[in-house]
Amino acid sequence: xxxxxxxxxxxxxxxxxxxxxxxxxxxxxxxxxxxxxxxxxxxxxxxxxxxxxxxxxxxxxxxxxxxxxxxxxxxxxxxxxxxxxxxxxxxxxxxxxxxxxxxxxxxxxxxxxxxxxxxxxxxxxxxxxxxxxxxxxxxxxxxxxxxxxxxxxxxxxxxxxxxxxxxxxxxxxxxxxxx
Length: 179
What we know:
Layout: E1 2-6, H1 16-27, E2 32-35, H2 36-39, H3 47-55, E3 59-65, H4 73-82, E4 100-107, H5 122-125, H6 127-135, E5 139-147, H7 157-178
Parallel strand pairs: 1-2, 1-3, 3-4, 4-5
């Protein structure tokens, strides 16, 4: 089974993140989705509940929009509190060992803005997630990114919807591969 940690601060108005999670639920009824912003609108994370969810699954998917070249604040808080000493690291902190973690993120800007010649590589922005996963002895599987999903990106709504469906299918196939 897989677990999706969904971290969109304005999920009710989301198009891409909402569509991605909805598509996956249709294809994978056993997928557990924890919408942490809905669960913890005051940012008071139930650490025990989150750790229990992590323990139930072999594959963890982080689904979120890129905010200012980073993860949304609630996901950072979630990491800070849930990946705790003697759970995720420390002499007895091996609870996440060998679990797999995959990042699926949406990016408002077009992909060409993240090419080497522009000095912005998504890979670089995800080093903290990668290193956190490795420190917790998890297998970091990398990321998939859906670019140009903001109306400001200048892409027609129909094209954004088509891209979102393609991303969902790609994510579904990756999940099947690692389950």
